[in-house]
Structures are given as C-alpha cells and as structure tokens.
Amino acid sequence: MSGSNALKFLRKYMMIIATVVVVFVFYFITNGKNLYPNSIDALISQNAYVFILGTGMLLCILTGGNIDLSVGSVVCLAGGVGAIMMRMMKGIPGLAWPIAVIAMLAMGLLVGLWHGYWIAYVKVPPFIATLVGMLAFRGLANIIMKGEAVEVDNRAFLNIFGGGSDCYIPDFLKFLSPNSSLNVTCFAAGIAIAAGYAVFTFVNRSRLIKKGYKVDSFPVVIIKTLLISAVVVWFSYKLAGYRGIPTALIWIALVLGVFAYITTKTTLGRNLYAVGGNEKATRLSGIDTRKVMFSAYTLMGVLSGFASIVNIARLQGSTPTYGVGYEMDAIAACFIGGASAYGGTGSIGGVIIGAALMGIINQGMSLASTPVNYQKVVKGIVLIVAVLFDVIMQMKRKGGKKKATSSSAAQKGGANA
Amino acid sequence: MNGFSMKNVMKKNVMTIALFAVYVLFVILAGAIKGTNMLDPSVVTSLIEQNAYVFILGAGMLMCMLTGGNIDLSVGSFVCFAGAVLGLFSVENKILNEWNAKPCSVPVVLLIVIGVGLAYGALLGFLIAYVRIPPWIATLAGYLAFRGLGTQVLTTASTTNAISNFPKPLLAIFSGKLFESPWGQLNIPCLILGIAGSAVVIFLSLKSRATRVKKGYQADPMWFVIVKCCLIVAIIMFLTVEFALDGGLPVVVVWILAVLIIYGIITEKTTIGRHFMTVGGNAEASRLSGINNKRIMFVAYLNMSILTVIAALVVTARTGAANAFAGQEFELDAIAACIVGGVSAYGGAGTIVGMVVGATLIGVINQGMSLVGVDQDWIKIVKGLVLLGAVVFDIMSKKGNKKQ
User: In 3-state terms, what secondary structure has residue A317?
Assistant: First the structure.
C-alpha cells in the first residue's frame, strides 16, 4: 500500500521535482546566474507566449489529443496586423493601441472560427485543418507585411503589454520603505498572494470537511501551503530585486487564472474533458460535441491573437518570420506538463510546469553557453522522457493488467474511422 | 452489381483528372503571361528532380498513415541530420581533422548513413509500437532533436555552416544523368528505356485482364484497358522524350521509380501490405485475426527512416551540399502529398498511385505558379487551400456514398 502511495506521489509531483532538480543543477553549472533577479525576469518575458499558447493548446489536446499546428503562423499574422495598424504612415500617426489590440484579438478569433468550423462541423482532421492554416496564414502574414519587418514604437502599448525597459508595474508603495533597493510593491504583492493562498486553502478545507468530503491530513496541507507560499514570496523577492512586476506577468497570470477557472469549474471545461475521455459517450449523454470542439479551437484562436500582442510588445515589432516553431513549444509544454496525448487528462497547472521547465532548461543552457543547437536536442529529449515517464506510470497503475490491445494509436485511428 | 460505368471511373480518378487539367492550365498560362514554355525539357526535368524527395518520403508516410493516420513529423529534420552525417564522413572537415581521421570511401559512408537511419528507425519504432508513445509526440521530439544535432554537426564541421565538395562518385549515384550521350540532341538509351517501360506496362495490363477473365472475376472492358494503356504509355513517352531532350534519364528518376514500384507492390500485392491497411482499418479486428499490430507499427517507422535516408541522399546530391536548412517542412510536403492523393487521415485506405498524383499535383501547382510569376506567399496560401479542398472533397464524397 505504501508502495503504491509513493508511486502516486511520484506520479503527481514528478515534474515539479524535476523542475526543482533542474533549477539546482543549473544553479551550480552557472554559478548561481540562473537565479539572478534579471534572469528570473527574463524567464517570464521570454516565455510569455509559451504559457499563453500552451493554455490554448491544452484545450485542444483535452478534446482528444487534437493539436493546432497553425498557432505560430497565426501569431505572426495577428502581430503583423497589429504592428501595421499602430505604425506611423507618412506622418499620419498610427491608430490608437486599443484599436490595434482589439483588431489582433479579432484576427485570432476569426482564425479560430475558421478552424473550428472545418474541424467541428465538416470533420476535417484537426492536424490537416491546422496544417492548412499554418501554410496559409504564414503566407497571408507575409503578404500583409510585404515581407518586411514592422516596428512598434507606441510607448503606451509597449509598457502595458511588456516590451521595452518600462514595462513594469510602477512602485506606488515605495513610500513604505523609501531606502530599500527592493521594489516594495512587487514584494508586498507576493506576500499578499501567499497569504491569500494560505487563507483560501484553509477556508476551502474546512468547507470540504463540513460537506463530508475526504481531505488531505492537516500536516500535509500545512507543508504544501508553506512550500507554495514560500515559492511565491521568494519569486516576488527576486523580481522585486530587479525592476518589479513585469506587466507581461500580469497578463500571463490573467490568462492562466481565467482558463484554470474555465477548465475546472465551468460546464464547458468539464465538457472538454468529457469529449476527450469518451466522445461517443459524451454525445450520447446529450452534449453537442461539435460545439465543444468548435469552442476549443475558437478559444485557441483568440489566445493566439493574445499571444501575438505580448509577442510584438516584447520584440517591439513584427517580422514575417516571427512565431516559427511556437506550436511545437506550446505542444511540448502541455505534454511535459502531463497532458495525455489521447485527450481527457491535463491541467493548466501542468502547462505552467511544462512551460517553466522548458524555459528554465533553455535559459540555463544559454547561461552556461551551451550551443543553441543542443538546446533543441535537449528539448526533444525532455519531451520524450516526460511522455515516457507518463506512459510507464500508467502501465504500472494498471497493475500489470495488460490490456492486450494493439498500439493505442492504431486503436484510436481505427475507432475514429 | 458493381458494373463498369464511366461515372465510377471519373469518380475514382478525379485527382488525376484535376492534375491533368491544372497542368494544361499552367502550360497555357505560363506561355500566355510570361512566355515561358512549361513543356520545355529542362522545366519538366526540374519538376521531377525538385519533387523527388516528396515521392520518396510520401511512400514512407503512406505506410505510416495506413496504420491509422499516424504521421512522422521528424523526416525533415532527419533529412538534415542524415545529410550532415553524410558530409561529416565523406568530406574533409574540422571534426574529422580533430579526430585525425580521413574521409571514408563511398560505400563505407553509405553504410554509415544507412546504419544511422536504421538505428533511428528502430528506436522510433520501438518507442511507438512497444512503449506506445503516441507517434506524433515521439516524432516531434525527433523533429526538435535532429534539427539541433544536424545544425550542430554542420556548424562545428565547417565555418560556412554547410558541407559541400562531396566526392564525385557519391554524387553520381544519386544525381546527374544516366547514359550521358555525346552524340546528337536526343538521348537514345533513355528513349529505349522508355519504350521498354511502355511495353512492360502494356504487357502487364493485358495479362492482368486476361487472368481476371480466366478466373471469372469482373474485368474492365477491353476498350477501356486499351485506352488506359494508351494514356499511361503517352505519359511515359512524354516524360521519356523530355528527359531524352534534356540529356538523358535523371538518375534520381531511377530511385523514384524503384521506391514507387517496390512500395506499390508491397501495398497492393503482399500480405504485409494488406496488414498495414487492416491495422489502420480496424486495429482490434486485425489483432484478433492474428496480426501482430505492434510489429506492423514498428516496421512502418523503421521503413520511414530508411526512406528518409534515401531522400536525404537524393536531396544532398541534388544541391551538392549539406546545410542546416535542408529538409525544412519536408514532413508537411509528404503529408500533403498523401492527403491530396486520397490517403485517409484516419488510416486504412490509400495507394501509392494516389500519393504520386497528389505529390505531382502539388509540385505542378508550385512550379506553375512560380513560372506564372505568383508570389511565394500566395503559393503557400493556394497550397493550403488545395490541401483543405482535397480533404473536404474526400469527406463529402464519402458522405455521399453512405447516403446512397
């Protein structure tokens, strides 16, 4: 019994443990450079798009291992549209940034509707429909940008969405400790979040006890809460030591928060899991599975549009080659974070871990001046190891009950046909 | 019951007819707009040579897709890596100098590259078939890893990030022309081969019909077989004359034909070929009828890697260099060729001939549009829409069949 408990624990927290180990390994390799405040800050802004696109990709993957190969091209297209709208043309100032932002989101939405229609209602296999999108939208982006880079110099836009040197939340609590070199607002926010989390956990626990649900034992909860709070406080301390809260972090948190809520607390979220778990059963129980698929790809489109906003802000412009390979990063983040390639399992928390782990490895390797090419190799290996681990754990969990089916991939193909 | 009707024939060959129509359209357009003759021998030869890799990779991708719509995303990166390995061992470079080694002879190099392909294929097949890692995750990892490895080898080996100056004998195996004849405009050996090929096609078609008739199967009417033969022979002779006028049969065509014929026979005539379709059609039923599904999956991916190595050799020989950008988006081209050629995205159905038609159609669109002067970006969009159109057409026609 204790053996299976250990296994359960390992399965649940493996990637978190791996992340911690990786952080320590790089800490020694890079002489602590990977934990410098500016490294932590860069980690967030450089990987903002992975968090956002990974969230959207999770929705698609949940519906049955379906992916969206077009997100890189869509980020490029929407970004190009936005950058052009904000550009000064022949002395005439560009459009106001809120209009551009709406246009970029609308662009993403349109793409999402287009994919959703073909995939959900015409039943075009998702990887083909989005492969078409990958080709077509990249071409369209190049046509719109006429093959040239477009700069973005709208200060307000850059500050709000995380580009340039001023894209941090102003330190309006500085008066509390005027002599401190830390960004007081950032540190205070970290402490507040940690405290809020602790309070929420205990309130929630007592509510669950009242209702008679099974809950973790008190010491476990305390340790877990302490650990998470400590990480949050430490994280905010590091950021406070640099320039404070990057605005990109706010947007990432917002997206992750909203979609964590959608996937766990709403009907749509439950339906995504249901469709991925057993599509036929879901349909027979009266859920319009087409609508669920349609929603997943529409939301993916909108999130691609949003990622393009963060992307052109950070890079302060757009070029026709932006976004190449983003789809692979997003997909990898989901799988490293434990999403099932056959749908039905996965969580936003997993995406966070997956994206962070990949980001940490990438950054650590560049700090250790490993050639860029090896970073790709390591990414591939990490992906395969993560999935391998998941597959083996699942086999163990089935307790040797070898369901003697053929390769499950082939089985799935057969079931779909 | 299922009598011969012109309607069925049209329905079955709609992509071939589309290919023919598109080709004629572009020949007219290119002539009218740019004054380019798309029937010029060098243009036709380059159409085939440029798309050689699509035919070869398409054959491998077909086998993977047959097993249940499974794809291999790593072929492009592996083409790059195999090219880099080829360069590493056959040309003098910094890495070899560091190891105090001399470039290997051509057969040794080929053995090394094929060995690398077999090793990767076996690993991939093992992970997918026996460990049951979903195919596209395993190959996605390969996509990332081999692009990185290939680039790393090339950047370390050479200051220009590319290896060229391949030994001539090596290049001659995979590129150039067969029987380069010094005499005359027309290459006679090429013509003779073309005529011989036509004769074989006619003989086989007639023989196959005769066998069907003898065994009491339903056979196409004689006139139809003759018309079909005539069309095929016309295509063969058209290509033969074009090649002959352009200095001889391109070596790469021999490779393409070898691959296509072998895989055509495997998929149509052999038990293992049937097994691929059964696994893709209904994995459970296939397992219960005693087929080793795992072995089929394993073979599919092992096979894909071998063909990827051949594609890498062909591509490297054509460009005469191994570079870090080699093979980009090759996986997409191969998948698109299969899909446009009517291979089911859910597995169980698809033919080599279909794949060839799909690959050629995309190749013709590519070449035709650039000859007409259409921008590369528009070509991408059109390519995407053709892909979508092919799938939607496939889905719609299946729906129509079910209703009847």
Answer: strand
Provide the residue type at A183 as one letter.
N
3 state DSSP class of A148: coil
Tens-digit pLDDT profile for residues B156-198: 888 888 888 888 888 888 888 887 766 667 788 888 888 999 9
Closest chain B CA to residue A408: B132
With H, G, I as helix, E, B as strand and everything else as coil, classify residue B234. Answer: helix
Q: How many CA atoms lie within 13 A of A404 on its CB side?
A: 7
Topology classification of domain A36-165+247-397: ABC transporter involved in vitamin B12 uptake, BtuC (1.10.3470)
What are the residue ranges of helices labelled H in B160-292? Answer: 168-174, 188-215, 222-245, 251-269, 271-281, 283-288
Is A373 in CB contact (< 8 Å) with chain B?
yes
Q: 3-state class of B181 per DSSP? A: coil
Q: Which helix (H) or strand (E) is B249 found in, with range?
A: strand B249-250
- Give the mean pLDDT of B216-237: 87
Nearest in space to A115 (alpha carbons), one of A302, A339, A328: A302
Q: What is the ipTM of this complex?
A: 0.80
> Does position A402 have pLDDT exceeding 60, yes or no?
no
Instruction: Please state, in angstroms and rounded to a whole number, the distance separating the CA atoms of residues B156 and B164.
Output: 14
Cβ atoms of A120 and A290 within 8 Å: the answer is yes
Rounded Cα distance between B92 and A88, Å, is 53
Distance CA A94, CA B307 (A): 52
Residues of A in contact with B392 (CB under 8 A): 118, 122, 124
pLDDT digits (tens, 9 = 90+) for A95-113: 888 899 999 999 999 999 9
Q: CATH 1.10.3470 region(s) of chain A?
A: 36-165+247-397
Q: Which residues pair with A168 in a beta bridge?
A: A246
Residue A96 touches partner B, C-beta closer than 8 Å = no
- The pTM for the full model equals 0.84
